[in-house]
Every structure is written in structure tokens, then in C-alpha cells.
Write a structure and sequence with these properties.
328 residues; Rossmann fold
Length: 328
């Protein structure tokens, strides 16, 4: 369980830039204070000398509590004098210290022998930015609104659409919490505007927060990338491998909206088959029925999907249209 390499590289670059900006701010503030309070330089020199003396005595094997207590008291007095001088000249007592985005690690990304929480949050943020979905931030389990599904019992289904979709919502919540790279895949079926993309992105959101490497793309976008790789060197084999064939979860949205050719049909099957052979799950979202999918992609493809993916039906009326009507 790990993000792809580019996520860590980008997060490290962002952290380095953050630290460089903090250090530059510290230098500028220090120069600003010294211009109006030159005496601060002597106090800081004394503080540095005191610290160096402590290190020298420890290295020399000294163990005299009284001597160390004296040095500690002197250091504390210098810190208080430093704060006094800053206040006297109109600066906050921590003006020279409070320059880091993260005061815990001082923007180094580590605290002791562990990664700092700020760095881990930056990695998660970077991983989410790698997901090719502008609406990712809005698509969470919490924002999936069941009010848009009718609570009238559907006589053909024996339940209301709201009851069914409440169960679907809970299913994917459980899936996201219990997910491992050996989980089953899923195919989300239903007419347009029923929340398939929303819930699949909610799963993506939660898995990225948990530290999994997830790749999301439309069927058209994914196939376009595969086709470009076939005829050019814009993407390296390693990038394709990491994103499409080796990610912990692959989500293919809008299956069936892509332009169909012999290449695209074979490529979709190859993606699914390769991932299944590696024991990795794949999500498909489609407005088509299973029969329509079989007619378009072959019985062999549909058989692999049905045998290895949960089939989840979405019911209701187009939520996008409902939201538009609410505005008028």
C-alpha cells in the first residue's frame, strides 16, 4: 500500500519550497529586527555560546548538575532578554521564531525519527491532485444526498429507490473502509445522473486518504492514453504500468461513451484481464445494461466482469436535472 513515485516526488518538492520560503522569511525578519535593535545580536551570540558550552561539557564527560543548572539559568535569562528587546522595539516575542508553516518539524517533514503529520497531509493532498476529476473534492459519502431518490415503493423492485440507494451507499462505505488490493471490483450500472460517478469518486477519496494508489479516468481518456503510448513515447512504460496496470484500484468512468474500434475493444479487455491476473480490482461505471455491454465488448469481457465484480444497480431520476429545476 503506497502512492505512486511521482506523488512522493511532488510532495517533497513542495515541502522543499515551503522550507526555503520559511528560511527566507526568517532571514528577512532577522535583518529587519537588527536594523532597529543592534543589541539583539550580542544577546543571540551569548545564547549560541551558552549552547555550545553545554555540548562541549557533555562531550567531555562532565556530569555536574550544578554547572549545568547554572548554564540553563543563563540561557533562560538570555531568552527572556531577547523577548524583552523584541517587545521594546514593537515586535512580538516570537516574531523571529513563528515563521514556519509547521512549528513541530519546522518544515523539514520529519519529527524525530518519524514523518511529521504535516508531510503526510501534504502527500495525501498531492495524491488527490493527481486524480483526474475536477469534482473529486465535492464527491464524498457525506455529500451523497438520498433526498433526490423517491421514497415511493417501486412495484417492480419491491422497495423504494431511496431504500435501494441507501443500501448502495452503505455498501460502498463499507467497501472503502475494508478495502485491500485483493478486494473484488465493481460495475456500477444505471441511467445518467444517478450518482455512479459520485459514489465511485467517494471511494477514491477515502482510499487516497487511507494511503492507497488509485487511478481514475474516463474510458475515453484511458484509451486515448493507451493509444498514444502505442504510437509515441509521451508516456513511459513505467508510468502506464504504475497508473493503469498496477494501481491498487483502477476506476474507469463512462464505459461505452468512447469511440469504438477494434483497438479500444481489445485494450479494455486487456486492462481488465491483466489486472485480474494480478489480483487487482477494477471499477467500471456505465449507462449501458449488461446485455448492451456484452454486445459491444464481447461475451468474454462481460463474463470476466460478472465473475469478478460486484454488479451494483443505480435507480431513480436524473439528479442533475432535479438540481437544475430547483434553481427555477
Amino acid at each position: 500500500m503506497a502512492y505512486k513515485k511521482s506523488v512522493y516526488l511532488k510532495a517533497k518538492a513542495a515541502l522543499d519550497a515551503r522550507r526555503a520560503a520559511s528560511e527566507q522569511m526568517a532571514r528577512l525578519r532577522h535583518e529587519e529586527v537588527l536594523r532597529v535593535c543592534p543589541a539583539l545580536e550580542d544577546v543571540e551570540r551569548e545564547m549560541t555560546a551558552c549552547g555550545a558550552e553545554v555540548i562541549r561539557r557533555i562531550a567531555g564527560g562532565e556530569d555536574c548538575k550544578q554547572n549545568f543548572d547554572t548554564l540553563k539559568a543563563h540561557s533562560l535569562a538570555m531568552q527572556q532578554e531577547r523577548a524583552r528587546l523584541l517587545k521594546e522595539h514593537g515586535f512580538a516575542a516570537d516574531y523571529l521564531d513563528n515563521v514556519y508553516t509547521c512549528p513541530v518539524c519546522q518544515d523539514t517533514g520529519t519529527h524525530g525519527s518519524y514523518y511529521c503529520d504535516c508531510y503526510l497531509a501534504l502527500v495525501r493532498e498531492t495524491a488527490k491532485k493527481e486524480i483526474k476529476a475536477a469534482q473529486l473534492g465535492q464527491c464524498t459519502f457525506e455529500t451523497f444526498d438520498l433526498r433526490y431518490y423517491s421514497d415511493t415503493v417501486d412495484p417492480q423492485l419491491g422497495k423504494s429507490h431511496r431504500q435501494i440507494m441507501a443500501a448502495v451507499l452503505q455498501h460502498f462505505k463499507n467497501y472503502a473502509e475494508q478495502f485491500t488490493p485483493r478486494s473484488r471490483g465493481a460495475i456500477l450500472l444505471g441511467k445518467t445522473g444517478l450518482g455512479k460517478t459520485h459514489l465511485s469518486l467517494a471511494v477514491v477519496n477515502r482510499l487516497v486518504e487511507r494511503g492507497f494508489n488509485v487511478y481514475y479516468d474516463s474510458a475515453a481518456g484511458l484509451l486515448n492514453r493507451l493509444e498514444k503510448q502505442r504510437f509515441s513515447k509521451n508516456d513511459t512504460d513505467d508510468e502506464l504500468e504504475e497508473d493503469i496496470f498496477s494501481s491498487d484500484l483502477l476506476v474507469i468512468d463512462d464505459l461505452g461513451t468512447e469511440f469504438t474500434t477494434s483497438f479500444t475493444t481489445a485494450a479494455i479487455y486487456d486492462v481488465l484481464n491483466t489486472r485480474l491476473n494480478r489480483g487487482l480490482p477494477t471499477f467500471f461505471n456505465s449507462n449501458m445494461t449488461l446485455n448492451e455491454i456484452e454486445e459491444r465488448y464481447s461475451q468474454r469481457f462481460t463474463s470476466r466482469v460478472v465473475g469478478n465484480c460486484d454488479i451494483v444497480g443505480f435507480y431513480g431520476k436524473d439528479i442533475r436535472q432535479q438540481k437544475i429545476r430547483e434553481k427555477f
